[in-house]
Amino acid sequence: MYIWILLATIMVALSFYNVSPRADKDHALNEVRAATVSNRFKIEHKAMLKTMECEIMYQRNSGCWDAAEESQNCGMCGNEVTRASASGPVNVSCFNPMFYANNVDKCAKSCTVTVGTDTMKTFWGPVTAGSAGNGTPTSEPVTDSEIESGTESTTTPGTVNTSNNLEDNVVENYNHFMKHVPHGYDTQRGRTVFPTGVNHFVYCLDEVAERATAQNFMRCDMKRDADYDGSHTTEKRLSSRTRYLVTFAQIPDRWLSKKDRSPLPILVNMLAKDSNSDTVFGWTICDGNSSEPKCKLYGMNARHGNVRQKADSRRAKGDRTGVTVGIKTYERVQKRDEDGNAVLDEYGNPIFENQRQTQSDYVIEYEKLPDNSVFWQTDEFKANCSSTPCMFAYERIPATDTAYHCYNLMVGFAEGKTKDNDWQNKHKDKPINQPQD
């Protein structure tokens, strides 16, 4: 009898290995795997946004990332070079170490920085051993007499750099991708999640993305090239708020339906769970045309709200789409003295004041990317997404330097700034190249 009792106990114990104690336990592991894919994609997008925003906000071209023909020497190209952004999107994928590892031949090898086991492009090229601040190391320290006489170099470590030009104060390697990912984030694991890599592009437009065409590209520094003929876009329409970061990655086959190759619901549900209204997340499905694909962006958050004057909105044409709001607008007018002359500040810059205007009616309209959007026209997107669904995200790059985040990152630890506390007076001695509102 005892043998039968022992045998029954063993059989009951073994049965628990075949019966799930919870009805949803069978899907728990798949949810974790789907969240891994979705969260990695979101992390890659946000990290690239933080990597590029200071460069674009301050209209810089460190490392020649926006040059028509990329320089292999890195360093500053200057503001007057021909910008690639004037005629199309700029591929900034090489600043992502995961993309760099899969596409070393496509990235400038001399413009790299290594953080731990991750190698990526950087704005100023490789770190020089023993360098400090924003200058080149010197074996002979600068003497007090040189400092007093003013004969010392303004970019040599150990001196006080009093220049108001942002180009003279920027710290080498002030920014890179790995500064903006969670602690312990392993980019190498991403190569197994996204075998074809994650692509990042910067679009600088003079129109919102939902209505932009190939005629709306402009330089990311908001300047006109010398050969600009004025055929489109007036200076009045220029806006630093229509510069976008676009990120896309091919969805792995294991997360596609075997029937019609559409994304599995468990993955798209994870992709839709995002509380940040500034970022448009979704997935693309194209018609398979590799030359001129027609694509649609799907997802709960696959649309963006744009504010338009009521007279220019679809509501004025009888369409009830959108929400009407009343907004009191203010126009910046130049301050003038009693004689009508412009009032200037101590640096010779004009002083503006706010002049209140009457209330205007605006409409918030939610729009989606069209089938022939400029976002679908890059060779990389066509190669990866014309036949296979891709995860997709686009977001407007910030136009203002909130709490001087970028200034502190770029200048706060430059040589001389930490010694004489000039960085604390940055609101008084602003650099020449300011982000545009």
Protein described:
The chain contains ten helices and eleven strands. The protein is α+β, with helices and mostly antiparallel strands and 437 residues long.
Précis, in short:
This protein is α+β, with helices and mostly antiparallel strands. The protein is 22% helix and 18% strand.
Structural key phrases:
437 residues; six-stranded antiparallel beta sheet; 10 helices; globular; three-stranded antiparallel beta sheet; 18% strand
Write the layout of secondary structure elements.
Elements (H helix, E strand, L loop, with lengths): L1 H14 L9 H33 L32 E2 L5 H6 L9 E4 L2 E4 L22 H6 L16 H4 L17 H7 L4 E7 L38 E8 L14 H8 L6 E8 L8 E4 L5 E6 L13 E12 L17 E16 L11 H7 L4 E7 L8 H7 L5 H4 L17
Antiparallel strand pairs: 1-4, 2-3, 4-5, 5-11, 6-7, 6-11, 8-10, 9-10
Helix pairs in contact: 2-7
**SSE succession:** HHEHEEHHHEEHEEEEEHEHH
Give the terminus-to-terminus CA distance.
87 Å
Contiguous low-pLDDT stretches (5 residues minimum) are 127-158, 232-236, 419-423
Characterize the biggest β-sheet.
6 strands, antiparallel
- Structural class, from secondary structure content? alpha+beta
Average pLDDT works out at 76
Strand content: 15-25%
Rg estimate, integer Å = 27 Å
* Discrete helix count: 10
